[in-house]
Amino acid sequence: MNAFLRRYFALATKEVQQLRRNRGLVIQLLLPPTLVLVIFGFALNPKVRNLRLGVVDESMTYESRGFIDALTGNVNFNVTEVYTRPEDAEAALNNLDLDLFMVIPADFARTLNRGQTADVQVVIDAVDANTAQIAQGYLGKALGDYNSSANILPVAYYVPRRTLNRAAHPAPPPGAVDVRPAYLYNPGLVTTWYYVTGIMSIIMFITASLVASALAVKEKETGTIEQLMMTPAQTSEMLLAKTSPVFVLMMVVLFIALITGIVIFGLPVRGSLWLFALAGGCAALAGIGIGVMISTVSKSQQQAQLLTFFVNPVMTLLSGATSPIDNMPDFFQKLSLIDPLRYMVTIIRGVTLKNAPWSALWPNLLVLAACAIVLFSISAWRFRKQ
Amino acid sequence: MKKILAQAMKEFRLFRRDKLLIMLAVLMPVVLILLAGGTQSLRLRNVPVLVYDFDNTPLSRTYIETYGAALTFRFVSNKGESPERALASGLGRAALIIPQNFERDARRGGGPIVQLLIDASDSNSATALGNMSAALNGSFNQKNGLAPPPQQTVSLQQRLWYNPGLVSRIYFGTGGLGMILIIFPALLGALATAKEYEMGTIIQAYASSLTAAQWVLGKALLYVAIGFMEFLMCFVVGMIFFSYHIPTDPTVLLVATVLYLMAGVFFGMMLGIGTGTQSAAIQGVQMGSFLLSLLLSGYLFAIVNIPVQIRWFSYTLPATFYVQIVRNSILRNVGWGTSFGPVLALVGLAFAFYFINVLQMRKMQFKA
After folding, report:
1. Which of A158, A346, B144, B223 is 20 to 30 Å apart from A146, CA to CA?
2. How many domains are contained in chain B?
3. Domain shared by A276 and A142, yes or no
4. What does the pLDDT look like over B203-245, one tens digit per residue?
5. B46, B112, B307 member nearest A326 (Cβ)
6. Are residues A108 and A240 in the same domain?
7. How sure is the predictor about A195, in pLDDT bands with cuts at 50, 70 and 90?
8. Residue A143 pLDDT more than 70?
9. Do residue B52 and residue B178 come from a single domain?
């Protein structure tokens, strides 16, 4: 066995023994991919259901009640309360008791029976832009159904019965273009898959950088780094020996996370597993690289962790793990290009959900690998300077 | 009271010496609020769409133009790849496929079918895309005389209150305030207490005439004050980037902020005392206050969407209530009436954490 390998194994054994004694670390490594992943996977859900709808019915006629029925036949709206004055509904909206309210004017039935278009006011609490937009969509659809069914029957006499006739979706008239959306990769539109894959990547990265920075700085803090410097081991060997146990642990974490995803959330793995492992490996290296680099610039374990604490939220928010990168302002989109986590998220989603071809994945993989190499070189250089 | 102030002064002197902490205290809130407010958005924009036009007639081009005019889409080249492969490669997030004889079929009344393949790995965007394509298709039919104009018996006059432009930035920008004000004060509190344990100086606190309550309050006072400075800084940043307005009745927001900061600091101190080491405390804060608040407080998604089994957890997070109060005050501009419940909850949580602190300390303290 040559000298390099012998020294490497000796150092690696030392690291493994140290790791084994650190029980807090084991918890810190095992908790995120299981418990945290499960909680967040279930908790993150941008769906909009059960919107609380208030109604101000100033008309109080068959027609107005028929209209309300037509809207609330939609499962997405729950009529929470019927108000007599618009002011009361306004107050309720202010009090967050409602998400939206609707005012049906006193002349609603009369206008309809004259064959004219009746106006109905809808006020939506738009603080949450996403919910408001979706509520608008639901309203538009429900109204479209109401209007098209109203044409089938004379308006004035059959209003209450109209709700029964609207069961079938109205077919487009002949000649009209029809668009058929097909939902690829996730035809059941399962929300959790998107977030589980995102959080999986976040956990990998955050844990790798935290653990690596803590371990690397510990020697410095306890003063044992001097002893290491005296040994015949090279800087690169030391770095390698220090990081390889962490790397192995991170791969274990990654696969625990994947198994959790598969078992609990039914996450499909459509691509090849070795590509998943390769990407995970590169991401772990990049994460460890960031951790080690931070540790070389900081004086104490506490400083190192403070810095990681600062770096991690930034990377998480920019990575597109929780919200699509295309939606960000252009400046942040450009900034996200230097976030290694972004590539990790792309690859993980590509492999699990989409079975993306190799030609699409390798550029991401390359960037991740480059990140890892650059970060490691910087830390090796900083390490040597000490 | 004097003892509390003296304790706070001592903390301040210690804090002043730690340059890294001061730098982080100034930089972190500003950077984070910009990111937390700017990057998170569920509204579709700039969606890259691949176009496969197998008809290539004036009508098919008009059809494509309808999508382009929606400003939500951005057409990208398909580089000669098949739609499935291009989508799998992430070249686009949807592929619009117009069949051959599209125009002829439309003119003859054959009702051509256009296919839209959507990458549904992000199911939220996919749903929105599907809905949008249906709406665009309808307007295309009407404009080109392929369908009769809809009979409008009832028309909805929609009014969007509080955020008429439907700007996500405003929603996440205000929620971001809650994220930032929980991270840093909690971190400082955790570090300050854990440090005493690590250095062993906690023995001096035991031996002094300070009671547990005084010790805890004195420490917290400084960090609440620092947190308040951060609040003011973030508010100024928010006024520039996220259209914050000073509410008509700012008392709610101010009272809630102080309570929120107290809850955060006490929570951090609880972790600090509980773990006794700085690194463990930092990790506790990272998990306990940053990640949990980010994901469960209603900053990203509505709390009602969280399954009931986990939802109760949201109500033990101060951030849940604070984010609500911030949005009430800054966006809805409503006063005490609406925010009273959440403020009360904040009081409860702050005191709960405080009492845990005092209990933890009292166990260890010598009898005076």
Report:
1. B144
2. 2
3. no
4. 777 777 777 778 888 888 888 888 898 899 888 888 888 878 8
5. B46
6. no
7. confident
8. yes
9. no
Domain tally, chain A = 2
Q: How many CB atoms lie within 10 A of CB B27?
A: 11
pLDDT of residue A301: 66
Is residue A24 domain-shared with residue A86, that is, in the same domain?
no
Touching check for A183 and chain B: CB below 8 Å?
yes
Query: Could you tell me if B63 lies within 8 Å of chain A, comparing CB atoms?
Result: yes
Residue A212 lies in domain: 19-44+188-385
Residue A179 lies in a domain: no
Q: Mean pLDDT for chain A?
A: 79
ipTM over 0.90: no
Q: Is the pLDDT of residue A155 over 50?
A: no
User: A38-63 in b/e burial notation, b at 16+ Cβ within 10 A?
Assistant: bbbbbbbbbbbeebbbbbbbbbebeb
pTM: 0.78
Q: Across the strands, what pairs with A215?
A: none
Is B80 in the A-facing interface, judged by CB distances under 8 Å? no
Alpha carbon distance A143, A232 (integer Å): 79
Structural element, H or E, at residue B118: strand B113-119
The whole-number pLDDT of residue A168 equals 45
Looking at the fold, whether A30 and A75 belong to one and the same domain comes out as no
Euclidean distance between CA atoms A131 and A45, whole angstroms: 12
| Most distant pair of Cα atoms in chain B: their distance | 97
Do A332 and A225 share a structural domain? yes
- The boundaries of the domain holding residue B126 are 47-143
Contact criterion met (CB < 8 Å) for B89 and A148: no
| Domain of residue B106, CATH code | 3.40.1710.10
When the pLDDT of each residue in chain B is averaged and rounded to a whole number, the result is 83
Question: Is residue B101 located within the same domain as residue B22?
Answer: no
A180 to chain B: which residues are within 8 Å by CB?
113-116
Residues A227 and A308 in one domain: yes
For chain B, say whether A151 makes contact (Cβ under 8 Å). Answer: yes
Question: Do the domain assignments include residue A243?
Answer: yes
Give yes or no for B119 touching A (CB within 8 A).
yes
Q: How confident is the model at residue B339 (pLDDT cuts 50, 70, 90)?
A: confident
Cβ contact B113–A178 (<8 Å): yes
Cα A153 from chain centroid? 47
Q: Residue B168's closest chain A neighbor by CA? A: A129
Task: Report the alpha-carbon distance of residue B260 to residue B353 in Å, rounded.
Answer: 11
pLDDT of residue A221: 67
The reply to whether A132 touches chain B by the CB within 8 Å rule is yes
Which residues in chain A have their CB less than 8 angstroms from residue B118's CB?
Answer: 181-184
